[in-house]
Write the structure tokens for this entry.
Amino acid sequence: MSNKKEFVKEIANIDEDFTQWYTDVVLKAELADYTEVKGFVAIRPYGYAIWEKIQEYTDKKFKEHGVKNVSMPLLIPENLLNKEKQHVEGFAPEVAWVTVGGEEKLEERMCIRPTSETLFSTMYSKWLNSWRDLPYLYNQWCSVLRWEKETRPFLRSREFLWQEGHTIHETAEEAKQFTRDILDIYVDVVENLLAIPSIKGRKTEKEQFAGTEATYTVETLTHDGRALQSGTSHYLGQNFTTPFDVKFQNRDGEQEYAYQTSWGISTRLIGAVIMSHGDNRGLKLPPKVAPIQAVIVPIAQQKGNVLEVAEKLKEKLSKKFRIELDKRDNYTVGYKFNEWEMKGVPVRIEFGPKEIENGEVILSRRDNFEKITVKLEEIEENLEKLLEDIQQSMYNSCKKRMEEKTTIAYNMEELERNLNENQGFVKTMWCGSRECEDKVKERTGAPSRCMPFEQEHLSDTCVCCGKKAEKMVVWGKQY
Amino acid sequence: MSNKKEFVKEIANIDEDFTQWYTDVVLKAELADYTEVKGFVAIRPYGYAIWEKIQEYTDKKFKEHGVKNVSMPLLIPENLLNKEKQHVEGFAPEVAWVTVGGEEKLEERMCIRPTSETLFSTMYSKWLNSWRDLPYLYNQWCSVLRWEKETRPFLRSREFLWQEGHTIHETAEEAKQFTRDILDIYVDVVENLLAIPSIKGRKTEKEQFAGTEATYTVETLTHDGRALQSGTSHYLGQNFTTPFDVKFQNRDGEQEYAYQTSWGISTRLIGAVIMSHGDNRGLKLPPKVAPIQAVIVPIAQQKGNVLEVAEKLKEKLSKKFRIELDKRDNYTVGYKFNEWEMKGVPVRIEFGPKEIENGEVILSRRDNFEKITVKLEEIEENLEKLLEDIQQSMYNSCKKRMEEKTTIAYNMEELERNLNENQGFVKTMWCGSRECEDKVKERTGAPSRCMPFEQEHLSDTCVCCGKKAEKMVVWGKQY
């Protein structure tokens, strides 16, 4: 035993230093690593496998909605970026510029896409003729660059992986409906795949995307009560189709500008999973998105037929589940337990000579550390049930936390106190003015998250100015 | 009928102007389109769906070989690119440089990756400790940039989509074997998925990748007899691991540099499919990679229950095949036939009131235009058999063409004549000198394609200098 590694290294305490805890988990669970390119990370196999599960789930839903994948250029000439005024103001300060190509200075510099509304609009302008061609429902899976000053793996990187959907429609109504349909897909991904409860609603004008008519958002809450924007869907109206001349002959034979949407989720969702579910042992993955759903760790694997049974079990279970067998002989069982807990594998399957003799195995849950002993021949049904149960329990416990951390405030004192003491979401009434929104942000540090679709009438007056309230808004500090 | 569009536009004759024919097919089959970014294309849904099929097939094979996907940064700082001498010489002249990020001039400029050996090597250096960690078998699906002067959609673009695999191993032997295993996957993709016969072999030193020990290649032949490099796998030895300090403690307790491979296929394969299989009606897709395997085109669809039968048939067949139903009412049947032929859909399913009455449908093959009439209730078995047969026939007819266009030359006159008259591959013996290779290129315009694994002894002397021959080489003009 002397030569074997004993324990994985410690991580920061989640309740004492959440920021450090997050970084520790990202690195020690081998999800991502820093690179020599400042602000850019390398996504390692275990992190990328989570992204692949998210892609697979989401791409299937998109395709069921008629969405088709395409690939647009990585670079955007400066004149294209400049065509939509709000858009360029929003993005120009944070893009990377290519000025030299193949040893020659470019006549016009080009930015690496921060998002591709401009390119899609240009191509739609070329392709669209008649109302019969509509809708175009296109999406691309790619990476984009935004030159952030402060970065953090998955949450805010200079480069991140995402999907960006861009559609054009015959009518405003159809485009608006599609924006909402996509938001429903995002809620489905966040809640059902990632087991994270959410609030969905519309962003205020201040917080919406540069160049949009309306931005809809899925907001989630982290372990320490911060808000995380987890997916957005924009109704762009004719804001881009007008300057980009995306028009079609309508049913009355007249030329009309098309109605547009765009929408995206990104690798930030991996950050949401870490921050929503993790604990002091590290990552905790919902079974549906876990690259490894159960890990077999044989005890005293050098004895008798332990390894042989383990191999057979792996083969059998792999037909239905994502299974890993850890038969490394240079690590102690204790080290392995710690490591797989750090990596958040939902179930550990343990057995040694004694269990084999009894025809049993032990199933150990990552989420609440409960252990159950089951008959070896009944392991499949039990594992299936257990994984479903873990998925649901993880959702429930996040939901409970979100409810506990969601409060109501009727005046600025309460709002400030709630945001500082309780963190979380705070609901208030709001008059709808930018002035009040700015004041709240200034005083509390919290921007508005959204105007939830599920509106409640908390009172008649704005939390800030006391004038007549128009909407219920949710506020929350963010990463 | 007066209002209906009659025929798709003409494309250039494949035997008179192959280059124009290629461009016409790319545009008119809606595979890709030019953009406002010079040298960059937009890959449209139909083209991208072919790429998705290639990805799906290939990614599965990679994973069966233990390969895991990751994501590395898009940008490479100049000092990293400069670390391996041959590599920087090969790539520096054709990269795009980012010099400004977020409104500030960068202290060190960065290039957009033309390939990522440098980034993978840097990370491997950070991660690798012991022989027990090896091998690392990583891959990424992404896009890369190379600032080409002359571009053509799919074949040579400033940006292209690809996968780049990068592995490190404990021994040279293992790395060499892995390089060859990957090449076998590429041959499988090209021959079995894309129905294109190939020659596989090793590149000469002159033609190999910048910074490699050995490059292995899959070479295919286009309709007009040009060679197309369709996939390459490189054994890099310790060329990168030494300057990048990728070392590990070996089994003897000593520090040793790891042995490396890299390998890639790209959207160029879509170009290979177009150029290998197409004809004067347009694209011709092998069933296994076709986004639509059969299209239902009802005749006289406004009559009786024609549309109803068509819808039911689509639903039934979609469980097993990729099916499209063309029920547009503003196009003639003739137009639809032409359009689906242009798009290369392997089988067209036709029927009208008469066929329905007889309980029959007509299956029309895209590859040889043969039609068969089958019972409606037996359509599934018939379609399955037909698709298999088309896949095999398409391979066979390419194979026949490749054999016809593969000749032998014993001296420079023959070599030049064969390359000019017959195009195709020309086999010769070769002394192994760079001088002779340069002379052949200069006189014929054809570089060497590879030294095939299946060597033949054609004669004792080099085709160029007449000295003792060392190897059989295949030559061919390329795109």
